[in-house]
Amino acid sequence: MENTSASHSVRWTLADFLSTYRFWALFAAALFVAVGGQSLTTFFPLMLSETGSSYQTIGLFYFGLNFGWVIGAFLAFVVGGRHPLWALISPLTLCTLTAIAFSAIFYLGGTLALLFPFGLLLGTVQAVFPITIAVTLNGGRPSRLDFAGALAVLSTTLLASNFAAFGSSLLYGRFQNGLPILLAFVAYLVLAVIVLMAAPNLSFVDQPRPRHVPLEPRRRSPWKVALLLLTPPVLLGAMILANYILEDRGYELFASPAFLIGYYLILALVVAAFIYFLYWMYRIHGELAGAEPSQRLLTPLGALLIALLAPLAVPILITTLGDILNDRARERGQARAVSISWLAIWTFLLPPVAFALIQNAANKSYALDAS
User: Fold this and answer.
1) C-alpha span between 126 and 129 (Å, rounded)
2) What is the pLDDT of residues 89-121, one digit of tens each?
3) Which domains are delineated in the chain?
4) Which helix (H) or strand (E) holds 14?
5) Cβ contact 150:14 at 8 Å
6) Which residues cross the membrane (predicted)?
């Protein structure tokens, strides 16, 4: 009875998810599957048509691919909730072995054999991943905002996979053959298996690990934060634009030593601004934890690493910080500290402005705590 009640009291937050290896194993595996699948399916018709395969033959692969989604969805709902590792590993391993066999047949000049089962297994893998991950995350009983945030972070893998076709085009242009693309696909699947096997427990039904790494709250000028982060990239963009405009009129700005020196100085300022951004992400998470512990906050080091290695997740982290500050203001009987709608808009349009809004709200929160 005690274990049952404890499991029902578990509520994972976005920060809890982002602080575990199992989440990033799911992220990395989903990324490898998405990139590998996108790179393969983009050039697969061309690869098969160059071997003399008819459109009907190529259609076998895509018929299997579509039917595989039905099998993958069924597998995710039946097995994914209780055994997420096996729900992901089983079709992934079978697809890897089939891809190896198909690569050997393709190298020997055959294409018809294994087309349908290859497409079937690939479709199963592509379907089982997003549904199993969603079911697994929901097992941690997160709030709607935390669940949506975790899915949004994972959905960046689909965005990244859109660039896979570029890499495939380079491979195809270099070798004038589809075999390297097939081998790259196999390599992606093998990497996905490896990262998943390193995390045997993929469920989130256990109690999340407590985290509290406080730093002393420090007030900063929001204007200073915005200007330090915004000015260098604006100057760099202005210089590139000026060179583009004047180049059409016969002026070669990059031929000028003074312009080159200024250009490299601004590049150095852009790097410095990025380092300050990482420092600010580190400090703001620690300082908000220092003002009041919260399981929704990442550790300072965790926030820094995510900002460095997964920058597409930063808008979600900033929105979460705004929500935390609004909750703290509400608990003290104050108006909301920051508009989440405007914060989300500025996060995508001009991130330094969103960072300044967070800093301004944090300054107000520190002042309330001091009084």
Assistant:
1) 6
2) 999 999 999 999 888 887 776 656 788 899 999
3) 2-197 (1.20.1250.20), 222-370 (no CATH)
4) helix 14-18
5) yes
6) 23-48, 60-79, 85-108, 115-135, 147-172, 179-205, 225-246, 258-282, 302-325, 337-358
